[in-house]
Each structure stands twice: as structure tokens, then as C-alpha cells.
Amino acid sequence: MGNVVLVTGVARRLSGRFIRSVQREPGVDRVIGVDSVPPEHPIGDAEFVRADIRQPMIAKVLAEHAVDTVVHLDVTGMPLGRSRGGRALVKETNVIGTMQLLGACQKAPSVRRLVVKSTTSVYGSAPRDPAVFRETTQPKSLPGGGFAKDAVEVEGYVRGFARRRPDVAVAVLRFANILGPSADSPLAEYFSLPVLPTVLGYDPRLQFVHEDDVLDVLRVASREAERGTLNSGTFNVAGDGVLLLSQTARRLGKPTVPVLLPAVRWVGAALRGVGVTDFSREQIRLLTHGRVVDTTQMRETLGFTPRYTTAGTFEDFAACRGPGLLPPDRLARTVDRIAAALPHEA
Amino acid sequence: MADAKVIPLDEDTRARRGARAGGGGRPRGRSTGRPGLAAVRTDEAAPRDDASRDGSSRDGSSRDDVSRDDVSRDDGTREDAAREDAAREDTAVADAGSAGQGDADGGVGDASVRAHDEPGGASPAAALGAVAGALTDAVAGAADRVLGGRWDRRVAGGLSFLRRRITGDYEVDEFGFDEELTDQVLMSLLRPLFDSYFRVEVKGVENIPSEGGALVVGNHSGTLPLDALMAQVAVHDHHPAGRHLRLLAADLVFVLPLVNELARKAGHTLACAEDAQLLLERGEVVGVMPEGFKGLGKPFSERYKLQRFGRGGFVSTALRTGVPIVPCSIVGAEEIYPMVGDAKILARLLGFPYFPVTPTFPWLGPLGLVPLPTKWTIQFGEPIPTDGYAPEAADDPMLVFNLTDQVRETIQHTLYKLLVRRRSVFF
């Protein structure tokens, strides 16, 4: 039974929301939140333990509280806040942190279940890949750097851990781009630019998953599997359907500026320079070729159905952000007015 | 239908052609009956009639019936349209009258209220209303005449299309297929090429099932993959269920900017087993040209000689999903860009599989990109069922090779047959 749950990276808002919701689960006695900085948001009745998962001290925390379920959410693409560390620190937390945490779990006999947050960017995005990735698809070109490479390495360590501790149920959840009212992903930052730079001649297919669904699926994965389902393994998690980048821009009401592919890197560097957004190489690849995953496993094996579709997720996100320079409802009204001004036949 | 077997005289055809020429430029209302298309078929009727006079197959004459039927139906619709137009004009006139009256009444009413302040204000207001009403109707009538009927409905349709597009309110599937854009824009761009330039004759399109998956396997030629696009138009416009052919394209397509965007929106996807299987499992009609670049970029001297059909991957996918294989033979595409040479060094520099040299291409610059106006025939053959095999059949190399050969031979023989029947490359 998942009595004692340990959640990493609780200083993040998504983890904070998860820790608050997991306390209400039946059968959960204690929840322990771990991070190297204290969270700014409330975490309810959960205990906060200030520990850096890159240090061996995490093993002591696991043993002391007899943790049986570890939810590893400290695999992220962005530094927390502007000031701290930047990309190097994020990479270290992702990779070294996971190594230490898994090492600690291996030594802790009480651990029965491990849930790891990963990302669909482990598939990379390349024109020579199939249009829809399944969990078993071997990507043609592995991501060369950035968060995607971290996630590939993290998944490698997790697979090694699963081999060494076959008694632990391991679930790796590959999330599509997470959006929602409090999402702080690079893509959410990109969508909050007033004018969206796009790559000329490419209209990538994007998939989103809503924060609420992320919390739900994490809860499904961190408790005992229900009858007829299996919650260990690797699962793609994404909302139904697909949006093109051009569609998202129109639904947000933001003008796009197509830029030639070689020049996109300069634009990205310039934007990064002024601290507007993190326009990493991997992000540019996503915005060039797009990525769509197959979610049959999530539905049939994990037994999870997301509440939000990709379009619904984006609608919710857009509603929170407010309209851009070209609000779609105003454009629609203009067209309606033109249509009304035309003479009609009886 | 007995009289339909009578061989139409050339005068007859010429008269019909004359009638069409006199019929006033563009056909009206593409949605109703496609007069343009039928007209093209009328032209085609002549050579085929010659053939049937020479004592060719029953097939030709029966098809003739169809085309004649089309023509008569077409005439019918045109008459209908004319009658409708006339009726509409009548109502429009009536409307104008009543509107003018109404305006005038309103003006008078208004004026009578304000009569004390402005004596004599009534008549200018009324006149203005009447003039405006008459003007609107005149414009509407002129537009009706110029744009060819139902113009306002078309404009309204266009505006609602525009409204959906600019607000992003449309759906695409997981492969990026934008059905609305394909139907409304991309197909309309390809249709003139299909109907008027290559004058494609489509045969046996009913061999594609009306629902459920099917794998259409065609020959590939012509330096640029226009044949695949024409096959897509053929399936969409001529199949009774208006199905979309989901083409599998080479990876080069998805590397090139703009091309990849359009290809995805038109419903094409990468030629790989995963994508093909997923589409077939969803009951789509998938089009594949297994010769790939070997067929597309073969020299002019080897025209209509089918190249190797890959490793038969398309057959295993069809076996796995149990969908029928529909062979498709395309005649006419080989001659659009007669490739007499291949600049291999340039091709390697640009990263293309070949760099065509045609009698016109690099020499005339962009003008060399204009394809020759050959006359095309697309024949869909009898479907080859694959659902009768055991589930492990897809992994049986002998069976896969045999089926691959069967498909290849069918296409090759159909090509030869069509070539024998062809009178000339351009007509």
C-alpha cells in the first residue's frame, strides 16, 4: 500500500499541486516533499524536507521515513526562477539528481513503487521520423542536447534501476507539452510572446496535456493498479487530437512572423539574450517538425483517459493568458459584419 | 440505350464542341454536375469512338454510353440552372420593386413626421432609398451574370471559410491532414491541371472500396511526383464516396520547407510501415508508389518499364491490416518531363536523388519547369484481397514476394494495354 509518498522537486508549482492532491488519496498516510529550496506555495499537511537530491543525504530521508512510493518530478526543462544556476544546474539536477535518487531507492528496501516524469521530447523531432510515435518507436535521431537529452539519460538510469530492483513497480510517464494556468514550460513562455516567431515553410503538429490531467495520471500511476490495468511501464501521456502551430497562433490571436530556418537561431539567441524566453535548439526543432505521440497504451493498459483534449487544453491556457493583438472573436465579428453588409437573396 | 450504340458522327461532336464554345466561357457552379469535366469527356469521346469503329472492345462502347449520358445530364442541369437563374432574376426584380416601395413608404412616413420642420424633405429621402435599392439590385444582377449564379451564396461560403481559417477553428488529424483546406483550396488548385491540362481519363475508380481501408499501389514517373497528386484528385473527384487518397511520400518531401507543410496538410505522410499501418487501421485509402525515386527519376528511354518494387514492405503492411491492394496504372506522366540526362554532381551538391536534365529544364530556366501537356489515363485495377491469409503471412517472405510480383505484373500489363490503345502522347 502506498502509505508514505515522497515527491521530489516540490518547489515547482506543478509538484506543489500534486503534493496537495495526493494527500487526499485514500490509503496515503504521509507525504514528504523534497527540494533544495523551500516552496513558496502551500503544500498542505505534507512534510517538507530540505534536501538536495544530488547529495547522498536523500538515502537517509528515504530510510528514515520508510518511504514506499517515490514520485520523481524533479526532471524539468527550465530553471526555477530567473536567478538560479541556469541550464547547467538544471542538467545536473535532472541527471545527477536522478542517479542519486535511484541509488538511494536501490538501497531502500521499503520502496515498492517509482513514478518518473519524463517527456515526449525523448523522441526528438526529425522529418524522417514516423508521424506518430509509439512507446516502442526508435527515433531516427536522438536528441543532441538540452532537456530532451537529459530525459533520455534519466530514462536510461530508470531502466537500469528497474532491472536491478524487479520488485519495484516503475512507471515512466512521457508527457507531451504541459500547458495550463500555472504551467511554466518553455512552450508556455513562447506562447506568451506578443508576436510568435515561426519557421518559414513549416507548420508543426503539436500536442498538449493539461496540468489537471498530469496530476490525475500521476495519481493513477502512484497507487495500486486497478483491476485490468497495469501501471508499470512506459506510457505516452497526451490529450486527444492535434493542433498546428498556425492554429494555436490564430486561436491565441497572435500574429506570427515566419523566419528562415538559419535565422531562427539568431532570433532565438537574441530573445534569450534579453531574457524573454528560452529558445533552445530542441525547442526550435519542435517548432519546426512537431511531434505527435500515440496514446493507446495510456488508454488501454494504464486505464487513463484525459479530461482535456489537446484543443481543450489550449483553450483553457489561452483563456488564462488573455487575447493577443488579433483576438479571434474580434476577427470573427469583423467577418460577420462584412457578411451582414452584403445584400442577401430572399 | 440501344441508340447509344450508334457511332456518333464527327459533325455531332463538332456541333457539341461548338455549342460549348458558344455556351459562354466558364462553367457555372462547379458543385452542380461539374460541367467542365463532362465537357472534357465529350472531347475524349471522339477518339474512343474511332477505336470502337475499328472494332475494339465492348468496353469502349459501353463507356461511351456513360459519357453520352453525362453529357445529356449535363445539358439538363444547365437548362435547370438557366431556368433557375431566370426565376431568380424575376424575384430579384420583384424584390427591387417592393424594396423600393418600402423605402419610399418609410421615407414618406419619416417625412410626414418631420414635415413641419423640413417641408419638402420627403421626396429626396424617398428617391435616395429607391435609388439605393435599385443600385444594389443592379449590382447583384451584374454580379450574378458575371460570376455565374449564386454569387452571394458563394461569397457567404467564402466568408465563413475565411472566418474559420483566421480564428483557427478547424480540425487536423494526427498526420496534419487539413480536410477543409484540401477540399476547398488545394484540390481546386490541382483541378485545372487535372481537367484541362492533362485531361486525365479515370477508369475503374469503383475498384476502390467505398468504406474501409485500401492500399492503392501505382507506378511512379515524371521526374516530379505530379502523378501521385493527379491520382489523389482522381480518387477524390471521381470516386462516388469522394474518398481522400492518403499518399505516402519520400522523406525528402518532409525535409523541404513549404513542401512539407503543404504535403502534410494535403494528407500525405512519410512512407514508413508505422504510418501506413496506422492509416490503414483507421480505414483510410492509402496510396503508395513503391518504385520511389528509382521510378520517378528514371531516364526517358526506360519509360513505362517498372522498376523494382522495393522490398515489398507495402504488401506486408496490407497483409497485416487485411486491406485489399488496388493496382493503379498511370499513363501519360512519363512524358511530362522527358529526362534525357542526370547531373549527378549537382544532385549530390543539393542533396537530391537526381538532378534532371530535360530538353527544356535547366536551359530555359523556370520556363523549363512547365510540364508537357500530355494526355493521361489512370486505371485502377481489380482489388487483390489480402484478408484470406493467416496472421503470420506478413512475415512469410515468399508470400510477400509473390504478392509483390503479382501487383507489379498487373500494373505492367495494364500499362502495356493502355499504351497500345493510346493514339498519341498528347491527344
TrEMBL record, chain A:
Entries under InterPro entries matching the protein: Epimerase_deHydtase, Lipid_A_modif_metabolic_enz, NAD(P)-bd_dom_sf
SUPFAM superfamilies reported for this sequence: NAD(P)-binding Rossmann-fold domains
Superkingdom, taxonomy of origin: Bacteria
Species: Streptantibioticus parmotrematis
Any Pfam family matching the protein: Epimerase
Protein name (database record): NAD-dependent epimerase/dehydratase family protein
Limits of the NAD-dependent epimerase/dehydratase domain: 5-237
UniProtKB/TrEMBL annotation, chain B:
Region (Disordered): 1-121
Record keyword Transmembrane present: no
Residues in coiled coil: none
PANTHER family recorded: MONOACYLGLYCEROL_DIACYLGLYCEROL O-ACYLTRANSFERASE (PTHR22753:SF14), TRANSMEMBRANE PROTEIN 68 (PTHR22753)
Superkingdom, natural source: Bacteria
Record-given protein name: Acyltransferase family protein
Record organism: Streptantibioticus parmotrematis
Domain Phospholipid/glycerol acyltransferase: 214-333
Basic and acidic residues: bias regions: 41-91
Keyword Transferase in record: yes
